[in-house]
């Protein structure tokens, strides 16, 4: 319970809670645990019950604190069970016990690769037209050198030269952007 959740307290309210309600805490925990075994967090029900009885007593006197406290706990537990049945979210309990397989890159890695790919696209766009055509056909479409030469009506030596120039220009462009190692260990 946070202090903002509570009505203003008086010494009488505190005395009543300390003497009439709090002594039943362990019995209340046992009751909730035994009567509602599906509830994984008994502490939530107990704290909710304490808060509700505190608020109720602030409005009007309660004659049998124990009976009222257990009735509140019963209703809270039933409400909690109803909500959990209607909720599509399942309680997983102890996260350490879950066997989760990380089958992908971290978010930082994904973002980094996306940024690098964006830079490569800009580098390719900055190439002269013929150089860009050769680069795209050879590196992005994986076309054999002979097919590229035939499609563009140039010699295989021209394809080789244009590809080499394109690679160098892209590498220079990327180094200026701070992505020096892109061509070393990653493919396009």
Order of helices and strands: HHHHHHHHH
Global structural class: mainly alpha
User: Could you tell me the mean pLDDT?
Assistant: 82
Intertermini distance:
56 Å
Approximately how much helix is present in the residues? Answer: 55-70%
Rg, Cα atoms, Å: 35 Å
Low-confidence blocks of residues? 184-188
How many discrete structural domains?
2
3D structure, described in words:
- The protein is 68% helix and 0% strand.
- Residues 184-188 have low confidence and may be disordered.
- By secondary structure, it is mostly helical.
- Helix 3 (42-59) packs across helix 4 (65-86) and helix 5 packs across helix 8.
- It folds into 2 domains: 3-88; 109-185, Orthogonal Bundle (Arc Repressor Mutant, subunit A).
């Amino acid at each position: 319970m946070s202090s903002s959740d509570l009505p203003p307290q008086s010494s009488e309210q505190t005395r009543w809670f300390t003497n009439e309600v709090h002594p039943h805490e362990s019995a209340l925990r046992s009751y909730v645990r035994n009567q509602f075994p599906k509830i994984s967090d008994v502490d939530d029900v107990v704290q909710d019950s304490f808060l509700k009885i505190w608020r109720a007593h602030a409005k009007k006197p309660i004659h049998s604190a124990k009976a009222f406290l257990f009735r509140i706990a019963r209703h809270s537990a039933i409400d909690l069970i109803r909500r959990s049945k209607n909720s599509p979210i399942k309680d997983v309990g102890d996260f350490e016990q879950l066997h989760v397989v990380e089958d992908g890159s971290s978010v930082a890695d994904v973002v980094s690769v996306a940024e690098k790919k964006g830079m490569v696209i800009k580098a390719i766009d900055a190439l002269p037209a013929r150089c860009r055509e050769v680069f795209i056909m050879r590196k992005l479409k994986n076309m054999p050198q002979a097919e590229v030469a035939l499609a563009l009506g140039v010699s295989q030596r021209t394809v080789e030269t244009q590809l080499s120039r394109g690679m160098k220009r892209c590498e220079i462009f990327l180094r200026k952007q701070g992505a020096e190692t892109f061509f070393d260990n990653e493919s396009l």
